[in-house]
Amino acid sequence: MPELQEIKRTLTRIEKLEHEVNLKQLQINSLLAITQAINENVSAEGLFNMYNSFLRWEIGIRKMALFFKETGEWECKTALGVETGLLGHDINAELSKYRSTRGLENAEHPLISEFDLVIPVMHKDEPIAYAFIGGFVDEDDVYNKVQFVTTITNVIAVAIENKRLFKTQLRQEVLNREVELAAEIQRTLVPSRLPSGANYQLSSIYKPHFAVGGDYYDVVEFPDGNIAFCIADITGKGVAAALLMANFQANLRALVTRCQTLEEIVQEMNAAVHRVTNGDRFITLFLARYEVRTRTLHYINAGHTPPLLLSNGEVIPLKNGCTVLGWMPELPFLEIGGVCLTEEAVLFTYTDGLTDVRNDEGDEFSEDKLIDFLQPNTQLSAKDLNSKLLAHVEAYRGHQPFPDDITVLTCKVFKA
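-> structure tokens emitted (416 positions)
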């Protein structure tokens, strides 16, 4: 009889080994199937369904919930053996407690307490998925089941994370291309060549802070030798600002050649900007017209940083005008400014990115510092003045970055 007992024990061991071999083979087949699905780029939903099916039918898991983060919140992507009502409970505040696989005997949360074990999947010390499993009974081979669930959860989680990263990369590439296109559009909007006359010079500085900025300037030369020029600052940056700038330039160019007065141009520009933006964005603008024969400058300052007129040792800020464009459907007030330039003068127009530059001590390159630089350098040509200014600002900022776009349009008028 002892021989019979030994035979029975041997048969039991053989059955157990066969069961373990079958389980291992099943696990290998499951992993191969999931790997093949990942290689075939099966959707995330398809992978979640495979995960649920394997755990239910192949591994015999009775309770399961798999969580992934979507738009900053943890969401259950697939579940098994859990009442639908319980899955509605928010567990976002609870998950930070779990950094490694652990039992849930003392869990008090109504959903988490339904499970026996939590398996977090970590990537660079950050969780990318949480698997909750439970419903074990005494005869279950818990250790082997947990080992396999851990493996398959990691495979699925990494695959889903790679999908997310790939989509993010594609979106970034599309965005980068959009920014490149916007920058190309913007480069075509600002003049590549500035006109010059017998008694005036023009020179510009254009340094967008990012690839696409919100600053704009333009010069229009008329057949009679007169010129109109402007400098503007569009709220916002990026593609939206570039599109608004393109619309602004097209309208402004058409109006400058069609309208008789600056007042009419600015009124129509304000209405056009408001129609496009509905008041959500606005534009500051300095627009001027210089009549060569009478040496008269007429201008409107629509909420822009006041340009500086330097002549005979005086510095005059050009402030007359109105409020910013696009903020309201109609401008509440408008005043045209005028100056007769009988002597040599420098009209220095700029955006506030210039005076916002800071040095290593945190001091701004203020309007006062700008005037201190300009006054002893008005004898320079417009081009040389701008070159010297740019070198001066570069030296002033030291190791500090430019805080915003910098645009300058300098007009030098010579004495008749």
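The first helix runs from residue 2 to 39.
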